[in-house]
């Protein structure tokens, strides 16, 4: 239940991603970065309203001595990089540990339980039989960084099992290089791998190359994951009788990208199965390049692939080209809730003609370019634009329109302005910020660090971000978002210090401003990610802001004080925006409201 106090119509700033502190009766050192932020607030803000403790608490925790020392090091980027571990620890930044190679020898079967941040080099190479198990490995932490290089290479009948590996972690970075290469027999089993993780980067390079009869299974892999990328390069290349199964891979995930390059190339008798792959995902993107190219007697099956997902894109390029006697089956493929785009370029064909392709219950919005001889392909219940052959539509209905709603869109995440009145009962969405906790940098340090795509290499060196690593991706994506051109009517800036945030807000709204956020996450279910706290700030015209006391519907006791914003003009929004899927409308037809999430905030002219 929500008891609404007032609404304020005006221009507002949305910032998405501190009173003077006293310790044991002693005021904080006036020369710390946090103390400086408090003085800066007093200087730049003209009113005497209470200072926002939730903002000032995000200021740098460095002491005056530390701030001066690291500021000097920042003037020489090499010096700061050399001292990165101490800098990250003292400044409360997100940094990955430097994991060196491991030359540990394990002669027998090993069970690794509750283990993390290790580099396994030449582990299990040449093993005869035996079984190694990784259970609860790198679970429940931040920045799980693990590397498996030449793992189980040249082994015979050796089994590896990864169970509940890297579950509930933030920004895990896992690398499997030449894993199982030239192995004979044996199994690799990934169960509940990277489940419920945030911004994962998983790389499998030359995985199971030149194997003979080895079986690899991925079950519940990256399920319920948020953002991130999975990469399979030269997976199963030149394999003989290799069997690979992906089951419940990436299900219920949010904006996950998967790349399969040279997968199963020149393989003999490969049997690959994708079942419930990417099901119920939100904006998944999958790329298959030179998959099963020049293979022999390959059998590939895609069942319930991307079923009931929201939008998303799949790209098959040179798939099964010149593959002899290939048998490829797509069953109930791409029946997405909201139309995505699937592209088949150079699919099949090549120098052979004894191939079979079957599409059964295939979704809409698909492009077949340079597709092999159509006589070899069968299309059953293939849906096109405007076709009534839509398979498996969701049955959930929107209360506002009666239209189907993707279950991925959380109830209460978007709502209409008419619901903002005293006595309304509505579900409270998950407003918790699951990103790793970080602090702003002092402006004196921030101003000495590069911040542009042209200086990406320098940033990567400072933060020890290797090519294709999670950290490199986070930095690159953060810079790209910050350098994106503003949308219609938007003014934007990315800020890495409290001082910069204050400056942007006052430059748009003037000095008589107030900043608000939702008090806590009570009542809910369960920014740009950068090494230091980075906020994407933008001004949004034509909005109204509401403050509300949130009450428990059973006891009527107050459990939270929420801030909500209603966007009155949605004409420039994408038609596939989750708000329209949830509320059953289209751009420009309705206003859209949402709560201010944890660690997000709004700035407005003080009333």
Automatic annotation (TrEMBL):
What is the official name of this protein in its record?
BURP domain-containing protein
Q: Main location per UniProt? A: secreted
| Domain BURP intervals | 414-606
Q: Where is the signal peptide?
A: 1-24
- The organism named in the record is Lactuca virosa
Q: Which GO terms describe its cellular component?
A: apoplast
The UniProt keyword set, sorted, is: Apoplast, Cell wall, Glycoprotein, Secreted, Signal
Q: Which Pfam families match?
A: BURP
Where is the protein situated, by its record's location annotation?
Secreted, Cell wall; Secreted, Extracellular space, Apoplast
């Amino acid at each position: 239940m929500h008891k609404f106090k007032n609404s304020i119509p005006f221009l507002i700033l949305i910032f998405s991603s501190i009173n003077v502190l006293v310790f044991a009766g002693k005021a904080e050192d006036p020369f710390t970065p946090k103390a400086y932020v408090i003085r800066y607030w007093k200087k730049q803000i003209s009113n005497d309203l209470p200072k926002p403790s939730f903002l000032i608490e995000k200021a740098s925790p460095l002491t005056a001595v530390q701030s001066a020392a690291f500021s000097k090091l920042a003037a020489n980027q090499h010096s700061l990089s050399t001292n990165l571990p101490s800098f990250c620890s003292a400044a409360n930044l997100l940094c990955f540990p430097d994991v060196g190679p491991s030359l540990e020898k394990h002669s027998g079967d090993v069970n690794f339980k509750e283990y993390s941040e290790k580099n396994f080099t030449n582990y299990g190479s040449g093993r005869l039989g035996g079984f190694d198990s990784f259970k609860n490995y790198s679970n429940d932490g931040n920045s799980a960084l693990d590397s498996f290089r030449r793992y189980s290479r040249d082994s015979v009948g050796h089994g590896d099992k990864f169970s509940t590996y890297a579950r509930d972690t933030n920004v895990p970075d896992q690398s499997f290089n030449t894993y199982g290469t030239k192995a004979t027999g044996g199994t690799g089993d990934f169960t509940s791998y990277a489940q419920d993780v945030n911004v994962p980067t998983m790389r499998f390079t030359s995985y199971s190359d030149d194997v003979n009869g080895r079986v690899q299974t991925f079950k519940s892999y990256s399920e319920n994951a948020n953002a991130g990328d999975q990469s399979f390069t030269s997976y199963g290349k030149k394999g003989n009788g290799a069997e690979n199964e992906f089951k419940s891979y990436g299900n219920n995930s949010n904006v996950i990208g998967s790349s399969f390059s040279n997968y199963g190339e020149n393989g003999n008798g490969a049997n690959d199965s994708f079942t419930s792959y990417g099901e119920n995902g939100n904006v998944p993107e999958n790329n298959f390049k030179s998959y099963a190219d020049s293979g022999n007697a390959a059998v590939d099956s895609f069942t319930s692939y991307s079923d009931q997902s929201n939008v998303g894109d799949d790209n098959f390029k040179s798939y099964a080209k010149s593959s002899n006697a290939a048998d490829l089956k797509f069953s109930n493929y791409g029946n997405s809730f909201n139309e995505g785009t699937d592209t088949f370029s150079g699919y099949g064909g090549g120098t052979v003609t004894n191939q079979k392709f079957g599409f059964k219950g295939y979704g809409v919005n698909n492009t077949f370019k340079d597709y092999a001889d159509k006589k070899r392909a069968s299309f059953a219940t293939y849906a096109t634009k405007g076709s009534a052959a839509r398979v498996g539509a969701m049955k959930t209905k929107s209360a506002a329109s009666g239209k189907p709603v993707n279950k991925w869109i959380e109830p209460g995440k978007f709502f209409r302005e008419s619901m903002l009145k005293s006595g309304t009962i509505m579900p409270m969405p998950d407003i918790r910020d699951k990103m790793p906790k970080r602090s702003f940098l002092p402006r004196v340090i921030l101003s000495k660090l590069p911040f542009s795509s042209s200086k990406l290499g320098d940033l990567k060196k400072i933060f020890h971000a290797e090519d294709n690593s999670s950290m490199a991706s986070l930095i690159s994506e953060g810079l790209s978002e910050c350098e994106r051109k503003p949308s219609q009517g938007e003014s934007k800036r990315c800020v890495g210090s409290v001082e910069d945030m204050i400056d942007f807000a006052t430059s748009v709204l003037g000095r008589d401003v107030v900043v608000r956020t939702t008090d806590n996450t009570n009542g809910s279910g369960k920014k740009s990610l950068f090494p230091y706290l980075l906020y994407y700030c933008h001004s949004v015209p034509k909005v109204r802001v509401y403050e509300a006391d949130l009450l428990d519907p059973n006891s009527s006791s107050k459990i939270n004080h929420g801030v909500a914003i209603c966007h009155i003009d949605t004409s420039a929004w994408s038609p596939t925006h989750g708000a329209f899927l949830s509320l059953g409308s289209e751009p420009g037809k309705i206003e859209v409201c949402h709560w201010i999430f944890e660690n997000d905030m709004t700035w407005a002219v003080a009333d």
